[in-house]
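Protocol step 4 of 5: obtain the predicted structure for the target chain.
Materials: sequence only (see below). No template structures provided, no constraints applied. The aim of this step is simply to have a reference model before the mutagenesis design in step 5. Sequence pasted as it appears in the construct record:
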Amino acid sequence: MRSVPENYFDSLSENVMQNIAAVPDFEKVSSENPFKVPEGYFDSLPTVIQQRIVEGKNKSVFEEWIAALRFKPKYVFAVAAVTILLVFGIKYFTTSPVIEVQNNYLSCEEVKSSSYMNDMDETTLIDVLEQENKSTSKETVKEDNSIEQYLLDNNVDISQLEKRL
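Step 4 output (structure tokens):
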């Protein structure tokens, strides 16, 4: 429970009177105008307004956006975030990944010394070699067909070729 300080009521009337005396006399203050206008202010006012209107018409759209954002910081952060996302998004989606394929062939010595050779059996090697032979034979057949097609298209006499070979 709170208690009242000692001699509080003895000095209360004096404190109230001091606070009342500190308040200004509003009747005297209200008769005086505390605001003053500089000399010739209203004479130059139309010219200043006209200049501001002309300057406003000369601003570009970009300058207007900047001026609008200057007074609204919450929009500045939003515009900055969207701009950053847009720049990085465009950069991310327009660049294509570069994949470098290196054809590193092993020499016979490297294959012989490899520990993986001990783990492989012959059937695996035979299967790999057969697949390589099939792919090279298909390429050879395509090349042969293209030579025959060339000879047919250009009406080359085969007997003349046989004599030269």
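Step 4 remarks: Residues 104 and 149 are 36 Å apart (CA to CA). Residues 114-158 form one domain.
Proceed to step 5.
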